């Protein structure tokens, strides 16, 4: 099963025992999943089951070199979709994609990679 | 002085900085 | 020998009449003593905004694009004190600040503070920073000591 990685994360983040939720209170930083893809077209879904007051997140695809102490999409190694205002980010540039998403929404995240890795 | 930034604020001790959600974005939307 | 927390509490109000800032022809500005300080005494805290270290280069770029001199001091691998927009006179102490003073990160009631201590007795009127070692701060002097934790620049 795809889970949140225990060690591939910013040191100020805490992963829950079931490894499906992450909490942090030192500003925006990142945790990667336990599985990665290298070529072909891949798709995964996330359901927002809870959203504490004022909590926001950025979800998407991040490469091994993405800076863990910054939000996903801050550098050129990540693409993210933000819950606040539904903005998508890459290299710290935001572009409007959709209205914001919140608790109860199901997000689909797809990536196309070249076949020849 | 040039040494003091515009609207420099004198502090007696450290203050924690509350990071904004858009802190790392090139321009906040 | 008071415990650190008590000495720190006294520091906040004693700093103002201990440390003054003067305009120095060499490095623009430096600190001097307004009253005699005993060896080992707390002189001033390097006060400022405590930010995550991953924010430093973004802020440095921001300040230099606005021509604002950037003053930061690293607490540990995770946090830096940014004294550029909010801080105190200690920001003019370059990271060496010897031979009269030395800097220490002190944990007081669970919070880390960068405190400048007097290395020896410093007389009234004497400067606190080693002012004449470095020319104007703008041009950095590369450090070739090769030490693991070297900060690459002498000033």
From TrEMBL, chain B:
Taxonomy, superkingdom: Eukaryota
Compartments where found: Nucleus
Protein known as: Retinoblastoma-binding protein 5
Lineage: Eukaryota, Metazoa, Ecdysozoa, Arthropoda, Crustacea
First-to-last residue of the parent protein present: 159 to 187 of 312
């Amino acid at each position: 099963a795809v889970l949140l990685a225990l060690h591939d994360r910013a040191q100020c983040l805490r992963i829950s025992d079931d490894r499906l939720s992450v909490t942090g209170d030192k500003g925006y930083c990142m945790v990667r999943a336990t599985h990665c893809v290298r070529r072909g077209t891949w798709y995964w879904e996330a359901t927002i089951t809870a959203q504490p007051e004022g909590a926001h997140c950025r979800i998407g695809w991040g490469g091994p070199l993405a800076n863990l102490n910054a939000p996903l999409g801050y550098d050129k190694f990540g693409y993210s979709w933000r819950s606040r205002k539904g903005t998508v980010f890459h290299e710290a540039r935001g572009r409007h994609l959709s209205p914001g998403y919140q608790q109860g929404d199901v997000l689909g995240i797809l990536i196309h990679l070249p076949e020849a890795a | 002085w040039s040494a003091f930034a515009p609207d420099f604020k004198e502090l007696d001790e450290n203050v924690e900085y509350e990071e904004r959600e858009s802190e790392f974005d090139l321009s906040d939307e | 020998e008071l415990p650190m927390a008590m000495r720190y509490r006294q520091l906040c109000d004693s700093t103002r009449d201990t440390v003054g800032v003067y305009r120095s022809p060499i490095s623009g500005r430096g600190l001097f003593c307004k009253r005699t300080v005993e060896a080992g005494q707390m002189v001033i805290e390097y006060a400022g905004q405590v930010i995550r270290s991953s924010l430093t280069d973004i802020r440095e770029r921001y300040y230099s694009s606005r021509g604002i001199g950037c003053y930061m001091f690293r607490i540990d691998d995770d946090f830096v004190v940014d004294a550029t927009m909010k801080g105190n006179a200690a920001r003019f102490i370059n990271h060496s600040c010897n031979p009269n003073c030395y800097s220490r990160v002190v944990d007081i009631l669970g919070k880390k503070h960068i405190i400048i201590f007097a290395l020896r007795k410093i007389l009234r009127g004497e400067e606190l920073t080693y002012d004449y070692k470095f020319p104007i701060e703008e041009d950095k002097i590369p450090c070739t000591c090769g030490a693991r934790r070297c900060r690459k620049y002498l000033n």
